[in-house]
Amino acid sequence: MSHFPWLRFAGAAITFTGLGYMLMKATVPTEEELYNRMAPDIRKKVDAARALRLAREAEMKQQVAAQAPPTNVVDSDSIKPIWADTDPKK
């Protein structure tokens, strides 16, 4: 059976992973830095896309709120799934 240097291997793996993470943190810009470096026309497109996304999310939240049953009224039949019906309908 071969004698593999597990301790050195683990140390090297941890070292390389740490170096890679530090290199990534040093070189990759944050979202704010990236936004500030954009050209004004691209920044306008990003703002428009962000506003559209927020509007869609608000619309979806309104639809979910309109379809959800009131929290103070609990109907046991509406909570049960259809397949959980025990008596067969003939």
Largest sheet: none
> What's the total count of β strands?
0
User: Segments where pLDDT lies below 50 for 5+ residues?
Assistant: none
The fraction of residues assigned to DSSP E strands is: under 5%
Gap between N and C termini: 71 Å
Structural class: mainly alpha
Number of helices: 4
- The whole-angstrom Rg is 28 Å
Q: Helical proportion?
A: 55-70%
Secondary-structure element pattern, one letter each: HHHH
User: Shape, please?
Assistant: flat
Mean pLDDT: 87
Region (Disordered): 62-90
Protein name: Assembly factor CBP4
Keywords: Chaperone, Membrane, Mitochondrion, Mitochondrion inner membrane, Transmembrane, Transmembrane helix
GO cellular component, one term: mitochondrial inner membrane
Give a quick summary of the entry.
With 90 residues, the protein is mainly α. It is 68% helix and 0% strand.
Strand-helix topology:
Blueprint: H1 6-27, H2 31-37, H3 40-67, H4 76-79
Highlighted features:
mainly alpha, 90 residues, 68% helix, flat
Task: Give structural notes.
This is Assembly factor CBP4. It is found in: Mitochondrion inner membrane. The chain is mostly helical. It has a domain at 30-66. The protein contains four helices and no strands. The chain has helices at 6-27, 31-37, 40-67, 76-79. The longest helix has 28 residues, at 40-67. The model has no long low-confidence stretch (mean pLDDT 87).
